[in-house]
Amino acid sequence: MTLLKTVIAFVAVLAASLAAAQAGESIEMCGSAPYYPSEYTCYGDETPMLCPHVYGRPTYPCSGACYSPSMYQCCSGQLHLLPAQTGAFRLEVHSLDEQLHGRIAEVCNLQFHVGDEAETCVYCFNAPPQYVCSTYQNETVLLPSGSMSVDVPGGQYWYVDPNNGRLRTTAAGKAAGPERQLAGKNVTVYQEGYFSYDGSPFWLACKESGRGQLYGIFVPHLLDDHSNCVTIKLAAVPTTEPKEGAYSYT
After folding, report:
1. What pTM was computed for the model?
2. For a designed S-S bond to 218, which of 123, 137, 168, 223 qualifies (C-beta 3.0 to 4.6 A apart)?
């Protein structure tokens, strides 16, 4: 883990612990160590061990270390990265911000958003007759390959804009073009785990100017202005319905 990632994780745990103290939560004991149950989990009886909750999610012990099950698995006392996601998925937000935590990312105007005013925008008019518009659930669904879950001829793809780090999609039906070459580039999707850009699970949710509680999603080191942004993580939530996606997204 890099120093930056360590600092971010520490700040997240510290902020959550301060919030628990301010809320008047009772302190419990894990062996000789005091802790807030909403911020830590105590494991083991003979040799108790505390592992923190990071971005609202518990971590687990493995040979004296704590790990996130959204990125690692513990096998015979050794940590290993999770395998890659193989099926369709939606993106869930993990955040210290209660307004964002647990939200599902949605696509509209070819951009991914979260927040109270986020919505999924779709298009199915003039679709070929074999595609019945009413059968689609019109949720924002991605595929690990860099594709969106769509039926429009030519497909549709998700990618990170290298100019500003924004997570977005190509226009529907554009099988060629420079953005198509960026589909899924530098992103690892772990099996029911983190949606990670260039090895980091951290993203930014930044308020869209003049759009109320609507946040765009960005890669931190590709975005110059971090004002009005909060750090989040994105996790893959598998989908099982074949028509949970859309004919196309707009």
Report:
1. 0.85
2. 223
**pLDDT in the model for residue 22:** 44
Extended beta strands in the chain, E state: 28-30, 33-35, 40-43, 49-54, 57-58, 60-62, 65-67, 72-75, 78-81, 89-94, 106-108, 111-114, 158-160, 167-169, 187-189, 195-197, 202-207, 215-218, 229-238
- Spatial contact of 91 and 237, defined as CB atoms under 8 Å apart: yes
* Residues 6 or more apart in contact with residue 201 via CB below 8 angstroms: 68, 70, 71, 194, 195, 233, 234
Q: Report pLDDT for 242.
A: 83
Q: Which CATH class is domain 89-238?
A: mainly beta
Mean pLDDT for back-to-back runs of 10 residues, the chain (250 residues):
43 48 79 94 93 93 96 96 97 94 98 98 95 98 97 96 97 84 96 95 95 95 94 96 95
Residues of each domain in the chain carrying CATH 2.80.10: 89-238
